[in-house]
Design brief:
The protein is of the alpha/beta class. It has helices spanning 68-71, 76-95, 107-111, 115-126, 135-145, 182-187, 215-221, 228-241, 265-275, 282-285, 292-312, 324-337, 350-362, and strands at residues 30-35, 39-48, 51-61, 100-105, 131-132, 156-162, 167-173, 204-211, 258-263, 289-290, 343-346. α8 (228-241) packs across α12 (324-337).
């Protein structure tokens, strides 16, 4: 006798449908756009716990400051490239229905004689309203973006943001802040370096400086020097001379309890070279700690490669090979002044600082560990 087929056998199974991903609430979305001397970059994010989740992003090399060193003006070509990039940003903001945003421009627009005309052109052609921020705010935003990377064992902190047109340095004394609260004390600087009395232990900003030399402007200063090694040495010593007015410059700093956080394409590129990455991986680079000796070894390899070797190196890439040595010269000058075993690499910067500042001001971040 043939066995009986169980009831329901052979019937089509009921499909199990996974719920469609929830669209982000536009009311909860924040955007930050950073228009620098070299790049136009934007993040769209929503608050998540004590941080945020990135929903959309944009990054493009526009070289807004090309020729600025010689002419003092933004060129028609650089402005046209930048407007095209900003049109894409506008489309992303519109598609995501972003309501909370800050769109800022930095050193190139601070220095250019025709910057105001350019800002009006951007408004007319894209509808975006760019805001030219001052060096102190740029430095402060770079600092708070790095709050999650601050060690609870750090007494003295130096945050360095190497940009295309300028470099910001901020020295912060955390010794009076309880260890576990030190990252949070950095985040509270969103209200200003010299904010009113706080009921919480505060991070003390000892000094800050904005040096009008970044990877592009420093390179342009020494374009006439043909010898690769000589050009590098001149750039490094020239940058160090600009630090003479920085208060902690002459102080010898013990390596214990001292941390440098470097935020820039230069620092992340050096980290990727140190790790031997064939392709860039943010998860391996962001938060990596390197010593002065390890960084010096990478820079020596860059010099040994020469211009053509650096161009072919996949860790440096076509976009950065012309700028990496001016950035390395800045980094070497800093480590000559303050050698450390705790340089933390930050793949973050002005955009993240803008997001943290907006979200903190609106009270939408949870008060938890970063």
């Amino acid at each position: 006798m043939a066995p009986k087929r169980p009831k329901g056998a052979g019937a089509f199974p009921v499909p199990v449908e996974s719920p469609a991903p929830k669209s982000p609430d536009p009311h909860a979305l924040y955007a930050a756009l950073d228009l620098g001397t070299n790049s136009c970059r934007m993040l769209v994010a929503q608050p998540k716990g004590s941080g945020f989740h990135v929903v959309d992003s944009f990054s493009k090399s526009v070289q807004l400051g090309a020729g600025l060193e010689a002419s003092g003006r933004l060129s028609h070509g650089s402005m046209s490239r930048t407007v095209q990039a900003l049109r894409i940003c506008k489309q992303k903001l519109k598609r995501n229905k972003v309501r909370h945003m800050r769109l800022v421009a930095t050193e190139a627009c601070r220095r250019a004689k025709n910057a105001r005309d350019f800002i009006r052109q951007v408004k007319r052609e894209t509808g975006l309203e760019l805001e030219i921020i001052q060096p102190e705010e740029e430095a402060r935003l770079a600092v708070i973006s790095c709050a999650p990377l601050v060690s609870t064992r750090t007494d003295q902190l130096l945050v360095v943001d190497i940009g295309g047109g300028s470099t910001e340095l901020v020295w912060i004394d955390l010794s009076a802040v309880p260890n576990r609260d030190r990252p949070r004390a950095i985040m509270r600087l969103h209200a200003g370096f010299h904010s009113a009395d706080s009921p919480f232990p505060t991070a003390k900003v000892v000094d800050w400086i904005s040096v009008p030399l970044g990877v592009a402007t420093l390179r342009d200063q020494f374009n006439d020097v043909d010898d690769d090694a000589a050009r590098f040495a001149l750039m490094s010593w020239f940058f160090e001379e600009q630090l003479a007015e920085f208060a902690p410059y002459k102080d010898e700093q013990a390596r214990a309890g001292f941390q440098i956080i470097g935020t820039s394409g230069t620092v992340t590129t050096v980290a990727a070279s140190h790790l031997g990455l064939r392709r860039y991986e943010r998860a391996k680079v962001d938060g990596l700690r390197m010593s002065s000796d390890q960084i010096d070894a990478v820079i020596r390899r860059y010099l040994a490669l020469g211009p053509q070797g650096r161009r072919r190196d996949p860790r440096i890439g076509e976009d950065r090979h012309a700028l990496i040595m001016s950035g390395a010269a800045i980094l070497q000058a800093l480590l000559r002044c303050w050698p450390t075993d705790r340089l933390s690499v930050a793949d973050r910067g002005l955009r993240e600082g803008l997001l943290y500042a907006q979200m903190s001001a609106h009270g939408v971040l949870e008060d938890g560990p970063y």
